[in-house]
């Protein structure tokens, strides 16, 4: 398996795993939904899980990989406000949880770059 294909498959697994967590432990994700969004947080949790499942499937298939990778990069940018909301909301939690919440923020950058690189590699193939 080529390095580029391996990267795409790993990204698909990462996104698919996150999707499964949205359904397995939705309460953890409900608390991250920015309060400014309309509707119930659980609807946003499940909705984002469905989107992640679709993106994972798209990343796994060579014909849809490039488009899915670009959309995945967009998703990682789009969920950044939820991660900021979580960090702000968790200011009163124990120290290790606060550190984890703030540590999520810079992690978005390599995730966006990973998805972008999968898209670019697929475009060249």
TrEMBL record:
Protein name: DoxX family membrane protein
Native source species: Streptomyces globisporus
Lineage, opening ranks: Bacteria, Bacillati, Actinomycetota, Actinomycetes, Kitasatosporales
């Amino acid at each position: 398996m080529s390095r580029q294909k391996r990267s795409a498959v790993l990204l698909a697994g990462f996104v698919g795993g996150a999707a499964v967590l949205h359904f397995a432990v939705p309460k953890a994700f409900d608390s991250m939904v920015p309060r400014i969004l309309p509707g119930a947080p659980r609807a946003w949790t499940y909705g984002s899980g469905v989107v992640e499942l679709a993106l994972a499937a798209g990343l796994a298939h060579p014909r849809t990989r490039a488009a899915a990778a670009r959309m995945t990069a967009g998703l990682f940018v789009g969920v950044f406000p939820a991660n900021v909301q979580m960090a702000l909301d968790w200011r009163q939690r124990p120290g290790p949880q606060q550190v984890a919440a703030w540590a999520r923020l810079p992690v978005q950058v390599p995730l966006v770059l990973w998805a972008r690189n999968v898209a670019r590699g697929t475009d060249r193939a």
